[in-house]
Please model this.
Amino acid sequence: ETGVTQTPRHLVMGMTNKKSLKCEQHLGHNAMYWYKQSAKKPLELMFVYSLEERVENNSVPSRFSPECPNSSHLFLHLHTLQPEDSALYLCASSQVPARSTEAFFGQGTRLTVV
Amino acid sequence: AQKVTQAQTEISVVEKEDVTLDCVYETRDTTYYLFWYKQPPSGELVFLIRRNSFDEQNEISGRYSWNFQKSTSSFNFTITASQVVDSAVYFCALSEYNQGGKLIFGQGTELSVKP
Model:
C-alpha cells in the first residue's frame, strides 16, 4: 500500500449531483489535509484535521463538506458544485506537532463539474 | 504574512543542461521550514527536501542541490545534468512554526527537459 491513497482518481459530476472523495493514509500520521489545485494557481489549503478535529477551514464554500471519522481516513463530500470547482483535489497527511515533518500527498482526484 | 514566490512559470532545457529553479519566501516567524516538492504528470506531490530556518547549510543529493540564503529569503533548487525524467512541476513551500504543518505553496515551475 502506498502512503496516501485517494479514490476515485477521476470524477465527472453534474452540478446537481452528490459525490464524495476518499483519502486513506497508512503512515500512522495524526493530521490530514485537503488541498485544491486549479489550473495556473498555487495549491490552496482547504481543510486541516489534527487529531480528528477540524482545526482550519479556509473560507471554503459550504458545498464542500469534510469528514474525518478517524486518523486514517478523510472524506470530502461534494454537492451542488459549480464548474469553477473543477480542479485536482489533493489529500495529504503529516505528523503533528512535529512541525518540521514533511507532508505526504496522494495522487489526487481530478474533478470535472459539468 | 506568509508568501512563497516562484517567478519562473515555465523553464525548458535540453538534456544534460544544468537548471536552477528560484524560490523566494516571506515570513515574520523566526522559526520556519522550507520544502521542495515534485509533481510528475501522475499528479501526486513527491517530497524532495526539507530545510529548517536554523540550518543554512547547502545540501546535495545526487544531481539535486539546494541553496538556502536567509539574507535574501531564497531557497533555490538546482538540477545538474538534467534528464527527461526530471520533467515535472516543482513546488517550493513554507511552513511556519505555529501553523501545525500547514504548507504555503508557490505557484510552481513547470520544467520541461527535452532530449
Summary: The radius of gyration of chain A is 13 Å. The interface with chain B takes residues 4, 31, 33, 40-43, 45, 48, 50, 55-56, 88, 90, 92, 94-97, 99-108, 110 of chain A (CB under 8 Å). The mean pLDDT of chain A is 89. The first strand of chain A starts at residue 4 and ends at 7.
